[in-house]
Write a structure and sequence with these properties.
Structural class: mainly alpha
Number of helices: 13
Helix content: over 70%
Order of helices and strands: HHHHHHHHHHHHH
Oligomer: single chain
Radius of gyration: 21 Å
CATH topology of the largest domain: Arp2/3 complex 21 kDa subunit ARPC3
Distance between the termini: 39 Å
CATH architecture of the largest domain: Orthogonal Bundle
Largest sheet: none
């Protein structure tokens, strides 16, 4: 049973969890470049103390942190809602882990749940601002493009190239946003697994993430989307491209799982793992190779999972 909220140790943990979230906000606002990486870990304090103290205490940490965020940002804005969604992610992940869900159900429930609630909250915010959701998103994108255009100009990039980059960004923005969020969820699952393992708690339903394998039906979905991409319809291409971006991330997860599987099987040293994962992170060619590895694993079965199961 989680300790009561009135217990001094619980109060101390609630204050600590809220403080860690506020510290992440401060880093994000003070050092924008470093803040991009800090935000990836924003759900972690809420998730950890949600599991340690219970649902109510986790909710208090998320709510208190969000109220402080409103004070720091001086009101509600698109970024504020996104930070709130990251705080809510810790609560959703906590529910999934407590119910012993596997990684697939955890990802689906958390991503769809948080995005659904966030979209509803954004709609309510748009009503109070007397604006449509599309109009507000368009305004935010225009503001972002102005900032990036100024940055590209300072880097000496020609205007035609800047316009092409901005046009490409607008097309892939929905898919990239979902990919970024899914990566955040996956990263926090990996970290909480390690944190809990250090105190002797094993998440059995997520014990073998290096055996993750996407459903075979997704292969045909990818092929079908590739065929639809050839259709001369702009709106169809827009949807297809963003769906393909999300599918590529799923196969990237599977490719990483294959690599992690053999690292564990061969008992590879830590420095080799760090070196290889670093190459994947900074080199686009290795990234594409990992995606291809995950995609063809459904046919070739590099890990021979069915054979080992038998």
């Amino acid at each position: 049973m989680p300790p009561a909220i009135v217990h001094p140790s619980a109060i101390k943990d609630i204050v600590l969890g809220t403080g860690l979230c506020i510290l992440t906000f401060a880093v994000s606002y003070t050092f924008p470049l470093l803040g991009v990486f800090a935000l990836l870990l924003l759900p972690l304090p809420v998730l950890y103390f949600r599991l340690k103290l219970g649902r109510n205490s986790g909710g208090i940490i998320a709510l208190a942190s969000f109220l402080v965020l409103l004070v720091i940002s001086r009101g509600v804005a698109f970024d504020t809602l996104y930070f709130g969604a990251l705080l809510m992610t810790g609560l959703f992940l906590g529910e999934c882990i407590e119910k012993h869900c596997g990684i697939e159900k955890t990802m689906i429930f958390t991503v769809t749940g948080v995005l659904g609630v966030s979209l509803a909250a954004f709609g309510v915010y748009a009503v109070f601002q007397a604006q449509g959701i599309g109009e507000m998103i368009q305004g935010y994108i225009s503001q972002y493009l102005e900032l990036t255009s100024a940055l590209y100009t300072d880097m000496g990039i020609e205007k035609q190239q800047i316009d092409a980059l901005n046009a490409a960004f607008v097309v892939v923005m929905p898919g990239m946003f979902i990919v970024s969020y899914m990566t955040t969820v996956w990263l926090n699952v990996l970290i909480i697994k390690r944190l809990l393992a250090r105190i002797g708690i094993q998440l059995k339903n997520m014990a073998a993430l290096n055996r993750f394998r996407a459903p075979d039906s997704l292969v045909w979905a990818a092929i079908g989307l590739g065929v639809l991409l050839a259709l001369p319809v702009g709106s169809v291409k827009y949807v297809v491209i963003n769906c393909l971006i999300i599918l590529l991330l799923i196969y990237f997860f599977q490719g990483i799982a294959v690599i992690s599987f053999y690292f564990q099987k061969k008992e590879s040293p830590t420095f080799l793992k760090v070196f290889c994962y670093g190459l994947i992170a900074v080199q686009i060619y290795f990234l594409i190779l990992v995606i291809g590895l995950g995609f063809f694993d459904n046919w070739i079965n590099f890990r021979k999972l069915e054979t080992q199961k038998k």
